[in-house]
Design a protein that fits this description.
about 120 residues; mainly alpha; about 70% helix; about 0% strand; globular
């Protein structure tokens, strides 16, 4: 049976296993459902929205594809329980990048040459 979302992820990531593709499809479908329910102005940075998407994907796999769910459930559980942590890390990274960029008049080129939170004397060539 042809599934457009499945084929999309299979083509995008030919190295992925069937379970990885089905997990991605479940997240894609859940995101569509949450956005439809919450409206187009929903924030992708809202930890509650992210958690809702992941929980919806997990629940769908559990109900529709229990064999796949049994192999990816730990992955989903870890993602769901760490949403707040990785959102905070992402926000901290963005804030550090902005601070670094504007520190002492550095340019975007300078910022790109030096990894954040590293020794500025060691630049990427």
């Amino acid at each position: 049976m042809y599934n457009e979302r499945y084929e999309h992820y299979k083509k995008l990531h030919p190295e992925w296993s069937e379970d990885q593709i089905k997990a991605a499809v479940s997240i894609d479908m859940s995101a569509s459902n949450v956005i439809s329910k919450e409206g187009k102005d929903v924030s992708p940075n809202d930890p509650d929205i992210i958690k809702s998407i992941l929980e919806g994907a997990r629940d769908w796999l559990k109900e529709v594809l229990p064999d796949v769910f049994s192999r990816v459930s730990v992955f989903f559980d870890k993602l769901i329980t760490s949403v707040g942590e990785w959102v905070q890390k992402g926000l901290a990274y963005a804030i550090n990048a902005i601070e670094y960029l504007y520190e002492k008049g550095k340019t975007v080129i300078d910022a790109l040459k030096t990894p954040i939170n590293s020794d500025p004397s060691k630049t990427v060539q």
